[in-house]
Every structure is written in structure tokens, then in C-alpha cells.
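ok posting inputs for the MGD job
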Amino acid sequence: MLKPVSRRSFIKASAATAAAVSLTSFDMQSWMTSASAEEKAAISTIPTTCNGCSSQCGMIAYTKNGRLWKLEGHPDHPRSRGTLCARGHGYATLVYSKDRLEQPMKRMENGEYEPISWEQAYKEIGAKLQSIIKEHGPESVALVQDPRPTGKVYATRFIKALGSPNYYTHHVACNNSRDTGFNHTIGGVPSADIANSSYIMFIGRSYGDGIRPSSMSALAQAKENGAKVVIVDPRKNNTAPFADQWLPIRPGTDLALVLAMSHVLIEKDLYDEGFIEDHATGFEEFKKEVEQYTPEWAEEVTGIDAQTIETIATDMGEAKPKAVIEQSWRGAFGCNYKNSTETGRAVALFNAMLGNIQQEGGYIFGASAGLGDLDPNQFPAPPEPDAVKDGEEDFPLAPRGRGVANIVPLRAKEGKMKAAFYHHSNAALGYGNPEYYKEALNEMDLIVTIDVQMSETALLSHYVLPEPSYMERDDAVDGVGGGTATVVLRQKAVDRVHPNTKPADEIFTELAKASGVGEYFTFTLEDYNKAAVEPLGITMDELREKGSIPLEDKKADIGTVPEFNTPSGKVEFASQTFEDAGFNAVPTWIPPLVEPKNGSYRLTTGKQAIHSHTQTANIPMLMQITKDYDLERLWMNRQEAKKKGIQDGDLVEVSSESASSTVKVKLTDRLHPETVYIPSHYGITSKYLTTAKGVGFSYMEHVPFHFQPMSGCSMIHEVIVDVRKVDA
Ligand SMILES: Nc1nc2c(c(=O)[nH]1)N[C@H]1C(S)=C(S)[C@@H](COP(=O)(O)OP(=O)(O)OC[C@H]3O[C@@H](n4cnc5c(=O)[nH]c(N)nc54)[C@H](O)[C@@H]3O)O[C@H]1N2
Ligand SMILES: Nc1nc2c(c(=O)[nH]1)N[C@H]1C(S)=C(S)[C@@H](COP(=O)(O)OP(=O)(O)OC[C@H]3O[C@@H](n4cnc5c(=O)[nH]c(N)nc54)[C@H](O)[C@@H]3O)O[C@H]1N2
Ligand code: SF4
Ligand SMILES: [Mo]
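and the output
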């Protein structure tokens, strides 16, 4: 067993190990010095994938002397198309971070973390888990993650093997609300064919901030073709340079805008009647409902004038089917508002009225890769658990596979959830109110976090198990759906800097064995990968060589309207499923949950191009950009600030019912006066994340722990704050 060391020496040791191998942390000087020394070394090229965000772009890693040298976007990967974003370059330096986890850690009685051996970790976790299951049943155990390639395979199998249905994903704070709306309406979430569209509306989706390289190139292509681009956002976001028009909408009211635009399409007979006749149900009910939602009514609600609403709807109707409201991700109808799911439904239906589904320039359901799976005769699969996933009865409309992850802390407080695994997830800072998470997770008997650094969630855990970074390991083969489905592989580019870290496939396999369910884990990652590529007629050798392989025989069928994955097989303008769950069959105006009063503001948030969620804040190279440009500031409308005697750069206190934070302010004309806006990546509190800690504030501290009625999502923008200047 390893000798226990204090945290201080743990950090020191980690720095020393990293220094022995290469850099202690990323600093430009030493990077350049070692770079020039290595100039003449041979270069190796490894095609792999980025893990800087959920896009997981393909990339080519170049190494020299076993060290990362340079990165490029993979030309054949549908999300990179030859380009990586700034995060893609910066996040790779995680390999050399001095704040990485290096060995399994256990929380001791005094609350401090001390290193333990893997054997001890597996043994203790396995024993504890078995006793919890024996006493409280397998339903008292949950597993939460961002489903990335290896995790999707191993973690889902692991929780099932334990007999628990309680598998959850991070989408509870991302786009579950949108997907709930889309799934029950058009049977899934297609992607807008931006490059070929002639009229594009973005509602709370900013390609220039929430970056995916191929989306940016598609937009550039559309502009080159002469497309009209409208952005609807309370904030003039960084897609604005591409836009012809910015509609500064009152936050939380996009539903009214889309309902009124639908009203105009119907009133002016500009919808695709043939499509509705052949492929939709419930249109008459919907038509009746939207009669009341006139542009004049919507002007009152949204602050966008009626004439503009009418003109845009008319122009889109005339441009159909090459007109589209982009499907968005998280902004307006992601997990932000009480009405987000309903907005999602309205957006899906507006596109259906344009008849753009599976049409060039419209909404395209992509082809899927169709990966193979392990042969259950050779490698027995765990049976489906008997119980229903916790939360499914409360939120029957929510996406089944993903579940409602915030059920875990809720049930923990009720004394029903006893153990949880967090893999590749910083739920405690990102999914819901951090104070609530802390109290709830402290009630549980066993929390295990698998991460690469000591996140806020790791700090609420009994055991913290370290993975090597994505540059240092192989992952499971993955399929990326789209116009042309693509099979992709993340593979090791450099040797492990910290030899005592273990990849998730090994961790879950060993945890399963220690928990008495090892019979479902008799395969290796390579066995899985071989099975995954087998039906594609591709070998692992080929995939290792190429990294990303487009499957030319798996292309989206453009021009043919599919059968929709809904109960009727059609687009459901009226949904029995919604009615059965206690909601209106057709989309109906729902106001946001809270409204700012004069002098108070709605707190909104969004992505910044150089950071991902909470995971990149500790990357010195990326955080330096934040510091150089003061990117952590709170945005405030200039006129509003004037009323309060606040000047640009002043320190302000932002207070809500839940918390109070202090931050510098950025005054701007690019923001609706009723909102203040904070970039979403800051407010790290873990003292182990030495670069990130203390910069900016965590908006989640202000978000009450609550559930959106339709999808169970976090309703992140349903927060009112006061802002006042902090006296010098
Ligand atoms: N740089 C970067 N890129 C990323 C990520 C990242 O972390 N960093 N993460 C990826 C992931 S997982 C996601 S989900 C996507 C998210 O990408 P987006 O969907 O673009 O999400 P956000 O940046 O959260 O919000 C987009 C815009 O919505 C606006 N908005 C806020 N409230 C409203 C409203 O009521 N109505 C309207 N119309 N607009 C509103 C905000 O001002 C913001 O400009 O980004 C992906 N790409
Ligand atoms: N505060 C805040 N909350 C947010 C958001 C935000 O931007 N800020 N964004 C929202 C959105 S759109 C989404 S999709 C979710 C995202 O929520 P999460 O998926 O939880 O994303 P992160 O907050 O970045 O946390 C990811 C965690 O995974 C760890 N990690 C990184 N690489 C690896 C790896 O290779 N293996 C393992 N085991 N762990 C790894 C990181 O160190 C980090 O602790 O959060 C939502 N909530
Ligand atoms: S969008 Fe950027 S961070 Fe995300 S996977 Fe692609 S290159 Fe990496
Ligand atoms: Mo997300």
C-alpha cells in the first residue's frame, strides 16, 4: 500500500513527476525552449479525437520524442473538417497539467484525501456497494456521466450489471428540454443543413461562441451562397458578424415569437400543405390554438415589433423548403426556461410547416454508423433491470436513455439513493445548485468519482479514481451520425505521464469484479472495438491508421420524408403523449417562471469560445486568455448601469435568493436591458485546481434546485438577481 501523504505533498509530488517527464505546467517560455531543442526529432502522426467538448472532433496529433508537438483538425471527421477550435489546441495541454489526479484517492475521516492503491479502492468500493445493494436494493445506486465513447459502453453495462436502471447523463443541464420537445413532435432531433439553406434563423444558438468547427464552415458557406441569417438572442452574440439581422428578444419569450410566426404562416397560407396532409396529424387543433398568437400579441411579450415578426415569417415561408430555424443546442430551448420544452415543440413544428424535413437546406435526419456489438453468446450481457429508472414516473416525457440526473441528489435527501458513480461529470458544479448538491451527496453512503482532476464533484466523493487524459489512452470505437456516417477512434498519442492512472474500461471492469458482477466483463476494449467495426467491413488496423473513416454507403437519404419516430409515425402537431402526461396536446404559450421587476435582472449565461463547461478553466493557456481580456466579467446593459451609477470595470455584487457573488462588470449595448449575462465557465471552487480557482463566479450557485415540469431539466435562467456597485 502506498504511504499516505498530505495534500500538500500530493500536489508537490504531482508537480515533480510531471517535471521529470516534461513541463511542470504549461508556460510558453519552457514550451518554446523545449520545442526548439526538439526541432530535429522525428515526428510521429497519430489520428485521434479531441475531448475538449462533446463534439469530439477528429484530430491529428503530432508528437516528437514522445511529447505532444502540434495538433490539427482531422479532415475526414464531420465535426472538425480539418479545423480544431482554440479549446481543441489548449485542452490537450491537460496531459502536462500539474493539477492532474495521479492515483486513487480516498477521503479520510478528517475530510482530507489520501492516496490508496487500486486494489484497496476496488476492494472497499466493491464491498460497500454489495452491502448497500443488499440492504437497500439495486435501485439505491446510480451512475451519472457525459456519455463519451468508452463510458457509453462500460458504464451503462456496469450499472445494469448491478441490477440498477439508474443511468443518467449531463443532458439534464444541456438540451434535454429541447429533445423532449422534438422527440414527441418529429421523433428526434435532426440537424439543419446550414450550408445549403437560403434563410437561417438562430434562436439562442451561437456558432461563434458555442463552437463546432464544421458548423462555422457551414455557416460561412451559406453566407457565400447569399443566405439570409437572423439571430434571435437577448445578447448580440459572436455569430453577429455573420448575421443580417439581430432580434434582441426579451429572454424566455421565444415561444411567443415562434407561435406568432406559425400564426403568420397559416394566415398567409405559406405553409407546405402537401407535407402536412401526407405527414402530419393534429394540424387543425394546432391551427386553432395559434389563431390567438398574433404578431401584435407577440410584440407585447417578446419586445420584437409585430411588423418584423410578420416579415420574417413571410420571407421564411417564401424561401421554404430552404429555410430553417436551426435546431439549437442549449440557449433558448435548452435547459434554461420553464417553457423551453414547449419552445422546442413549436420550433420543430414551424420547420415541419416549412416542409423542410429531409430536404436540402432544411432539417436532415442523418445516417447512423450502425456499429456492431459484442456477441452475447461469447460475452454474456447483463439482463435489463426490473425496476423503472428513478425519475421516469415523475418526468415521463424526458428522454428515456438519459434520464433526469438531478433525481439523484433529490432522492439522496429523501434517503432513497445511497450510492452514486460520477464518471466524466462535474454534476456538483454544473447540473444544479452546488449547495444543494453538497448537502445531498453528503447524505449518501458511497460516492465514487472518476475524473482526471479534483473537480467539485470529486471533492464530494468518498473515492476519486484517476483516468489518464484522452491523449494518453485508447477509447471505444464510436460512430458519428450525419450526412455521411463516420466511424471514429480515439487512440493513445503519448505515453501515460502518470503511470498509476487507469482508463475507464479497466476501472469499470475491475469495479464489476469487486462488486460480484465480473461475469459481464470478460471482454477487453479491443474485443469490443473489433466487434464494433466488424459489420462495417473495416479492420481495427485500418481505423487505427486513419482515425476517422466516412462510411460512403451510409448517407442521409435527402429528398425522402421518413416515417417519424412518433406514436402515429407522423409529425404530431397535437400529441396524445403530452396530454397523457398532463400537458396540452398542442403547444401553448407558457410564460417564464420568474420575471425581473424594475431594477432587477434575469441572470443568463452562455458559452465562451475558449472554454468548455467547467473542465477547461484549469488549463493555464486558456485561462491566460480569460485574464488578458477580462473575459470573466458580468455583462450589463450600459443604460441600466448608468441608472445605478455603475461604470465599466466596476466591481459589482450580484445577489439572488440563493447566493451573492462579486465580479467585475462589462458594460455593453449588446444586451437586453432586462438581463445580465455571465460566461458559464468560471467560479471553480476546488482548491486543487490552482489555475481556475477564484476566477469569476459560478452562476449555478444562484440557480435554485428545481425541475422543469415537462423534461425535468434544470431551468438555469429562471433566476432573478440584483446588481449593485461594491463600494470602494
Ligand atoms: N466554446 C464552447 N463551445 C461549446 C461548448 C462549450 O462549453 N464551449 N459546449 C458545447 C455544448 S455541450 C453545448 S450544449 C453548446 C451550447 O451552445 P449554444 O446552444 O450556442 O448555447 P449557449 O452558449 O449556452 O447559448 C447561446 C445563446 O443563447 C442566448 N440566450 C440566452 N437566453 C436566451 C433566450 O431566452 N432566448 C434566446 N433566443 N437566446 C437566449 C445567450 O445569450 C447565448 O448567446 O456548445 C457546444 N460548444
Ligand atoms: N457551471 C457550468 N455548468 C454547466 C455548463 C457550463 O458551461 N458551466 N454547461 C452545461 C452544459 S451545456 C453541459 S453539456 C453540461 C456539461 O457538464 P459536464 O459534462 O459535467 O462538463 P464539465 O463541467 O466540463 O465537467 C466534466 C468533468 O469531466 C472531467 N473530465 C475531462 N476529461 C475526462 C476524461 O477523459 N475522463 C474522465 N473520467 N473525466 C474527464 C473534467 O475534469 C470535469 O470534471 O454542463 C451544463 N452545466
Ligand atoms: S469543438 Fe473544439 S473543443 Fe470541441 S471537440 Fe472540436 S476541437 Fe475539441
Ligand atoms: Mo451541452
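notes: The pocket of MGD (ligand 2) is lined by residues 51, 146, 170, 173-174, 330, 423-427, 429-430, 450-453, 455, 467, 469-470, 612-615, 680-681, 698, 700 (CB under 6 Å). Residues 7-96 form a domain with the N-terminal domain of TfIIb fold (CATH 2.20.25.90).
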